[in-house]
Every structure is written in C-alpha cells, then in structure tokens.
Amino acid sequence: MIIVVGDLVTDVLVEHDGPLETGSDTGASIRVGGGGQAANTAAWLAHIGHPVTLVSSVGDDAAGRDRVAELEWAGVRSAVQTCPGTATGSVVVLTSAGERTMITDRGASLLLDPGHVTAVIENAPEGAHVHLSGYPLLHAGSRAAGLAALAAADRRGLPVSVDAASAAPLRSAGASAFLHWVRGTALLLCNADEADVLAPGGTAAVQARALTAHVANAVVKRGAAGAVWGARDGSLVEGRAPAVRMKDPTGAGDAFAAGLLAAWCSGASPQAALDAGAALGARAVSVLGARP
Question: CA angle, 267 as apex, 190 and 198 as ends, to 5°?
Fold first, then answer.
C-alpha cells in the first residue's frame, strides 16, 4: 500500500497553439477535470494496479464531490476530508509546445488537517509506504499537515518519499528549510528546476549526489533526457526516457513518480524503478491531461 499525501484540485487545462494574444482572444482547447500532484500520482498508481490511498482535502462543493468520485471510480482508496465553507482548489494550466504555466488557487488544500493525516498513517497496514507531495510543505497553511505526515511515518517506521513539487514555491520557502523538513527520508524526487533550487550548480549527477547528504536516495528528473538516481553509498544510476511524441507534459512527473514508486516498493532495483517511471511518464505525455 502506498499512502499519498497532498493536493486534490480541479484542473482547467488550456491547450493553445502559439503565443497568448495578450488583451485579446487566443484559440484553445479547454478541458476540466481532476488534478493535483498527489491525486495524479495516486490515479496513475491505481491505473497500473498498485494499491493506493489518497490523503487530501476538498471543499464541501460539487467540484470536491466530483474530484473524489473520479478517483474512487479509478480505484483510489479515499481518505479525503471535506472542509465546509471553502471551495475546492483549482489550477489553470496553460500548455503549448511542451511548455506549461500554472495559475493556482489552492482553496481547501490549505486546510488539510494534521490530525486527519496522522490518523490515516497511524492506522496504515504494516509495510505501507508514505509518499508526500511537497506542496503541503511549501505553503504555510498546509505545512503542519505535511510535517505531521513525516512525523507519523517516522513513529511507525514507514519509509517515506517526497516530491519537491515546484521550483517557485520551493524557492520562496527556502532550500535549507525544505531540506531540513525532509531530512532522513528514503527518497527525494525533483526535476531539473527544483534540483537547481535545492543543489545549485553542476550536472544532474552532481546534484543527486549532493542531495544524498540530506536523504537516503535522490532522483533528479531531466525530462526527455531521462533521470539520475543517487544513493547515499555513492552509487549512481542513469535512466533513459523512451522517445515518444509529446502531446501534453502535464502530469508527466506525477506518472513518473507512480511508476518508479510502484516498482521500488515492490523490491525493484533503482535501475528498474527508473525504467518503470520513465515508461509511465512517456504514457502520460502522450495524452491530454494529467491523468490516465
């Protein structure tokens, strides 16, 4: 069982060709559906048949009910709390030619209750793995819940992985603070931009090795260039990404995390885990939207 902790929101995906026409109209394809880094990872885990529980929060509104129903239909076990008087979070994702920009209203995600998170993890089955999206840690309103997840897993002796989430809020929170919060966890996942915040300078391999001063294992994702896995014992493994036609990069990192975690938690080597993550990430970029 993998317990994923973090955001569940509504994604408004805007796929446009060419630059935005500021102050005027820009043609686009617009799709509304479920999103949130943690929820996306949980959806991909369920899609490949790995047991998963999502710990998150939504508003007491139609959007929140729809988001939970989508995940339950997809096979994700729900430990999602409902926060009255608050709207479910929303993200507008602008995507074009391999680039994406996100405009975020985290809504009820900021109200994730530390007690709720703690109770779920304390009652998790033996051998469970906790995967924490970095977003709860990166915002003051939800930070206590993120820290509660780390503390509860530590008390239970459960392994923990953390996704660094996003470079801009990571920079605002501060690299030293974030690395202090996640110190001693089993695995840290970050993309190239996030790695530049946490371990500036050098290649992905150098950054992965530097991050193992804080965590047992670190993976630096490089998109189409693959990923690098560094371990505290000094070993380094490189994974390749399959060559596929990119339709939409949204959710690719979340799918990569799901593939990697499902393999690694099932006893696969770092090399095999990287390959599994790359294969699922390649499937994600081939479809529109962040979910299977």
Answer: 15
